[in-house]
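Table 4 source record.
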Amino acid sequence: MSKYFGTDGFRGEANVNLTVDHAFHVGRFLGWYYSQDHQAQIVIGKDTRRSSYMFECALAAGITASGADACLMHVTTTPSVSYISKVDEFDCGIMISASHNPFHDNGIKLINRHGEKMEQEVIDQIEAYLDSARELPYATGEHIGRVIDYASGRNRYIGYLISLATHSYKDMKVALDCANGSAWMIAKNVFEALGAETYVLSNTPNGLNINDGCGSTHIEQLQQYVKENHMDIGFAFDGDADRCLAVDEKGNLVDGDGILYIYGSYMKEREKLANNTIVTTVMSNFGLYKALDALDIRYEKTDVGDKYVYENMRANGHLIGGEQSGHIIFGKYANTGDGILTAIKLMQAMLSKKMPLSKLTQDLKIYPQVLKNVRVQDKERALNDFAVQNAVREVSAKLGDQGRILLRKSGTEPVLRVMVEAPTNELCEENVDAVIAVMRQRGLIVEAKK
């Protein structure tokens, strides 16, 4: 586990544990690292948080001071930075965003020249530099870098998305919840260009209201709007628009598992599903696996994180994968989760099959799920305790092919997560509590102070 960078970048509260000084030095290192034999160019995008402007300036200052050019896409989406990093052959890309977190948090996501998440080797070198007293040389004279306006890259990405649509959206009433974030202009432009009757929610960012009661983390706003205003479909994005959740015409949520089911089965029907396989994480719903079994579609399970989904897809040649949260990767078209691309692909399946979204999910039964976090003294000891493992096996045997149990450790906290999926909430609660009771009997839990 890296000290600063997790699976989705360097994230923290702005100027508390992710400071402007951190950003400047990340820029200094990247500018120096990529300018060894040429004047490098690094593209930067940001979301709408107030602190994103501050971090953009700090990164650009560090990059140019080290002799590279900083090319600014301004407010844009994470997948657009990934796309432009690759097609315009930048040395690397940076996205300033804390995704679905509240406005006071922010993050620095690093993207390599192939549009993928930055290699761990480079991350390790950045972290070593941040913790050292090492002085990097400053560029001087004509070698000092430039700050370049690169809004044209954002427009080219919009054109790329539009080119991927296979149908006109004429006469389709589409609601878009942009989370007061990165998608607030881009999503509307794309859907209107494709002919949709477009209704946009949460598209008045002020630097403080990103993800505030809106977007993919607060889907209930969009559900109500779609139902009350008789929309054909609704899409909700997160702060940097790398994830998407959908709402059908009846106001029902279609999450990432539902999207994988709809588009995966659509690919199989057209003989486009490479290796007849969809990549999921261990947190995908048991109901998705039952539905895929019924269609004779295979699936892989990775650790939680779109990074691991993408690595599995790339290593094995799979073309679709994602997370329940709405990070969906379409390997033929992108190297990262892309919320607007996901919406376009879902529209394609719906319009091609001439069915409403609710019809496309009718054979997918999402099982009730209960997940409880348990604070423990030692994660490894608690996870591998023989009595706890016996309790997990007993629950698994009891549920049989009608549910499942998952016991996993948090990557960032002294916490074990106990999750059960079963036909009823009561069964879920009963079996989660049974495992937690064994952990308590074994003295593994850190009890809350009274």
